[in-house]
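Board work, copied verbatim: CoA transferase
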Amino acid sequence: MKPDWSCLKDVKIIDVSQLLPGPHATTLLMQLGAQVIKVEQPGSGDSSRMLGNAVFAQFNRGKRSIALNLKDPADKAAFLELVRDCDAVVEGFRPGVMQRLGLGYEALAQVNPAIVMCSISGFGQTGPYAAHAGHDLNYLAMAGYWSIPVQVEDKIARPKVRLSDYAASAYAALSLSVAIMSARQQGIGQHLDVSVHDAVLSWTAHMAWLARGFEDNPLASPTVLPENDIFQTRDGRYLAMGILENKFWVTLGLLLGDEFPALRDERLAQRMSRFGHKQEVNDLLKQVFLSRTLAQWSQVFAGHDLPFSPLLNACELFDDPHVQARGTVREVPEERAISVGFPVKFSLGLPEPRATVPALGEYDLERFKAGF
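↓ predict structure ↓
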């Protein structure tokens, strides 16, 4: 049995948020030992319920659900009763909504001075864009995600996952941990203003700064690495070659230079010299990797110290021996879904959260008062 050591084991968090950032943030804290009460609108619940059970389960497994209409005086009073005995409230409405409901930070602090309120919104609680509508793609666009050229033949394409939402949820979880510990020490809570745009901007800003001035010639930007790219193989699959350090280019030349002598060209021997021949280097590697299938390249590179990876498809991913060995992802056969654990291994272990997906309104206030 794993030791119950987590410093969050007696922390209670009210989650009034929906979709991804807020629910993911509270899930992270729950995996670290916190108890999460999910407050949902009666009848409809979290909007992600409409996207299917698997989508809702992804970010809400292990929580307890209570259905409250925050516009109703009786339910609002019940919500404040929950606040009295909890450490934090996480909400994801547009700025001003909680205040209009009479549930802004000041109102919550009157009930519980040590409460931490975490507001996650697209552009934050202040600023000229605060009231703007938006989703992940909008925040990426406004944070300069596509202003950074990274490939010789760069493309504007939608990211495969909701990057900005995950950035915000991670910062929210980290900030909540610190704020809750501070509130317990000092007896005074605070209001956390988490902007999804701010979160992803903190990821993009450095690279965007380097890319300034190369709008007319993006290939010349120092952010474009010709040998650090995705390449197609003969069978239509793809591989990633992440060459950054020069030693990997040398290894590639030693391994394949007899067949492709250009890999040993003295003009391309150093990283900075390759920067002067970006198109040539990228075209050379395209030619090289089109000469064999992905499976053949996996055999060629096996046992060699090279940053090579096949681009796995969805089935290959979950059969991958490293994914299985690490145990972060577990299949839930009865739900035809997966459960994703906290992605950091603690040597003392982590508490096992509830594995069930909450039914809408499965708890009531009296049951919460009686304890979990």
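The chain has 15 helices and eleven strands.
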